[in-house]
Hints:
By secondary structure, the protein is an alpha/beta fold. The protein has helices at residues 2-30, 111-123, 137-141, 144-150, 187-198, 222-234, 246-255, 271-279, 288-293, 307-310, 317-321, 324-332, 336-356, 376-387, 392-406; strands at 35-42, 51-59, 62-66, 76-79, 84-87, 89-94, 99-100, 103-104, 126-131, 157-160, 205-208, 239-242, 259-260, 283-284, 424-427, 441-446, 449-452.
Amino acid sequence: MTKYYSIHLSLLLLTAVLCSCGANRDKSATTEPSILLEHVRLIDGNGGAPVEDTRLLIKDGKIAAIGTDIAEENATVINLEGKTVMPTLISAHSHIGTLKGTSTKPENYTEDNILAQLKRYESYGVLQIMVMGTDRPLIFETGLRDRSLKGDIPGARIHSAGYGFGAPNGAPPLSFAMDKVFRPATVAQVTLQMDSLAQLKPDMVKIWVDDFNGKYPAKMQPEIYQAIIKAAHQHNLRVAAHVYYLSDLKQLVAAGVDIIAHSVRNDLIDDTTVAQMKAQQVIYIPTLSLDEYAYIYAQQPEWINNEFFKKSLEPGVYEMITSEKYQTDLKNAPNYALNMKAFETAKQNMLRLYKAGVLIAMGTDSGATPVRAQGFSEHLELQLMTEAGLSPLEGITVATKNAATTLKVQQQYGTLEPGKVADFMILNGNPAKDIKNTREIFAVYKDGKEVSKGPLP
């Protein structure tokens, strides 16, 4: 019996060892292989000159090392000679779900539609978006926002301002699927609505302070947005304001607003206000592409027939914007000349604030209407910021590091540095020489894995 017990125990121990070895083999087999990118031109997002002919080591979804002398046994080596690696883009002002085809409607807001749009952003190298106040219950009830941030679903990661705050019978337009926006008429209503919103744990709070060039009889009143800002801050939430007029900007800054979500377009921002914005660390999102879209389709822009642009559009939109009727109506619209002037003012204000040291972050308002193309808009925004006076490298920092700072994810994203998540684009050209080279996408990587070859075949 003793001999039998000894043999039996030995067999059990041998089995345990074999199982342990097998488990270790299984674990190592499921570990993602390291990737060594070599002969890389690196733009890291911090604003410095590109580093030529360097190496990046990617392990476990993060950047493990950068330098010419790094090596790794059993790594998959990829030769990127002649190509550029830069961080993926981040939009601090976008919209998803309500857009479909040529319409913007509540019924468009489905999980399938949202997922398709997140994949579209991803294919253009945009891997983080802030949805500015137009989300609907589905995204929270299904956990879609949280699943996106955890990486459980493909496409761009969703950050959300939940349901924004507008004016009763005013902005934002109900016709653009804005029926879930809070519209407080009294300060007492603000408190209850903010408590409700805070339960969703939004990244920030969005407010609309605008009359859309006189379309609406009244804007949100100062006592209302002052109460919103105060209530949001009590919940440790920042407030991002849609503005147009300089007078509103001044009052909002005085009230303690945290983020300006559009350009001031009716006048140049004065030195006193610039200094106050800098002192209070107000972040400014210019959304220049939105202002160009307001008139540019009537002028046949040079990118109108470019496949990189056309691939970003919902079905039917290209036919709509290139029709003679659409272009004629746009040119004959009462605000046509005003919109062109507003765009020029927006560019001047963006450059003025940038030079003064106010943090500028990229946002586009893409997805709010059919003509604001998701994915392409972010590359167009880079072009417009450089045309306004930023260097290509400054524009890239605005669209990566600064936007990550705005979303408070800069510890993990926004620049390519050891320890950060390996979200990057590989480009065929050098955007430091020509910003339009961000459109020459060779591959997009998310969490260290290739997820797209770009929107074009």
